[in-house]
Amino acid sequence: MTGQGIPCMVMRGGTSKGAYFLAEDLPQDDRERDELLLRIMGSPDPRQIDGIGGAHPLTSKVAVVRRTDEGVDYHFLQVSVDQAAVSDRQNCGNLLAGVGPFAIERGLIAAEDGGTAVPIRMTNTGGGATAHVQTPGRTVEYDGDTAIDGVPGTAAAIVLDFEDTAGSSCGALLPTGSAQDVIADVPVTCVDNGMPTVVLRAGDLGVRGDETPAELEGDQRLREVLERVRRDAGKLMNLGDVTALTVPKLTIVSPPKAGGVIATRTFIPHRVHTSIGVLGAASVAVAAVLPGSVASGMAVAPDGPRMRIEHPTGALEVEVELDGTGPDIVVRRTAIVRTARKLFDGRVFPRS
Ligand code: NQM
Question: CB within 6 Å of ligand 1 — which residues?
Fold first, then answer.
C-alpha cells in the first residue's frame, strides 16, 4: 500500500500545521494506522528528519476525514515527536479549521457559490461544529484579509461554530464540581469547554506570567510542580491516569496587558504553546468569567460574549455565551474565527 505513496494534503489550520487524510486512504486497523503515521511524520525523533512532521507538537498533527450522511467526521491524532506514540485522547480546534476546505477539495461536500457550511462531527470528543468556508465560484478561497495572531499575513476567514463543547472529555464543564480546588498544594480551576484544562495563577507558581515559552520550558522546578498537578488533576477530572496523555493542558494566567480579558501561557502539556489552542482558549474563557475561579480576581470583565485571550504571540478572540453563574453555569454557544491554507497536495512516502 505504501510503495505508491499515500494521498495526503498538508495544511496550516489556524496556528497549527498537519497532514490531512481521507479515512479510506489509511489502514482501518487503529494500530496499523498509528504505526504508519509514525513513519510518515518521522517519529520518534526530536527533529522528525525522516518524515513530514515539524519537530514540535503543534506541527506534528494529523486529521482523518470521512464522509457521513450529515456532513463529515473529523478524527484528530496527535503524533508524538520524540516518542513512538499516537494519541486520539484530545481534540484540536486549530486543525479543525482545515477540515472544511479539505472536505470540499476532496469532493466530500459540494461547494455552494459564495459560502459553504460544512457540518463536522468531532469524533474524538463527540461534539459538533459547523465550518463556514468561503467558496466563490464553488472553489475554496484561501486568500483574504483576516489576520490571526501567531500567523504572518492574512487569509480568508473560516468561522467555526461549535456545539456541545462543555464537558467534551470530562463529562462536565467543571469536572471537579467546583470553581476552585487545591491540587498538589496549588489553587486551580479545572474546566472543560472542549479541552480539559487546568488553570493556575502565575503568582501561585512563582512566575510572572509574561515569560517566553522557552523561558518557561527551561524552568525545571516549574515543570515538576506542573506535572504533579497535572497527574492529580487528571484523576479528579475523570481522565484517569494521564501520565502518557496530552491532556489536561495547563494554562498559567496573569492580568491582561494588551486590552484582553486575561493573559495566558499554556503547557500542552510539556512544551509551551506559542499561542493557545482554540478549544483551550474557549475553556480558559469560561474560567475567566466564572465567579470564584482562580482567574476571577485578575480577569477584566468582557463587554459581551467576545473575549480576547492574550498569549505569547498576541491574542485569540473567542466567543463564549454563558448562562448562570457558579457551579451550575451553562455554555450556550462557542465560536471562533480562524484561517487555514492548503500548503501541499500529493502523495506522501513513509519510511520503511
Ligand atoms: O485547543 C494545541 C493547537 C492545540 C489544540 C494543544 C487546539 C485546541 O493549537 O483546540 O487547537 O493544545 O495541544 O493546535
Answer: 15-16, 57-58, 92-94, 195, 246, 249, 268, 273, 277-280
